[in-house]
Fold:
Amino acid sequence: MLPDGYFDIVFAKSPRKGPVSSLIGLWNREYLCVVPEDGELFGVSFRLLAVDYLLGVKVAPLFNSEAVLSEGFGGITRTDLSDFVSFVEKIKRVLCDMAPKDPIDPRKLELFRTLYMSNGAVKVEDVAKKVNWSSRQINRYFRNRFGISLKSYCNILRYRASFDQLKEKRLFPEQVYADQSHFIRESKKYSGATPKELADNEGDRFVQLSTLRKK
Structure:
């Protein structure tokens, strides 16, 4: 799995046990995900505001790591993991029940709207001015909640935005990279692979690239 700026809850089952649910934090490097023989994994990806307003937890301690959740998280059973469509309907109901009753901080809404719309191609100072929240406060919030600085998170989002082009075998940088060498360095930093290796995706090695739909 490649760093993509999301955190995930993964439900795993095998013929011998399951389901086991894990919360996976943010990553800034590739993550080896091993599926047991005859096993299955069902994952749900979340944007960062869900940390505050759905789960109410800090994922800072889970930077580049994961933690097993309590048994029976969300009421998901082995039966729910027997059919993908049924699982989707069940987890949608679970998440709707967890939806926040209180209004979301408008500064956070504008902050993340800006980050996701720009694919991270913004300066910290510009974001701070736009949301009326100081750079120091934003970085304290990011480090406290997610274990990473805002600038580092923007770099991951920018890298994630290249997945679509790599899926289409376009190897030259289309995001805000200085040049091809910069793009290759960033690719190796986050995935351990060059853009060409990612685009080839031999053996469906890279999960996000394997599951992206062609435009």
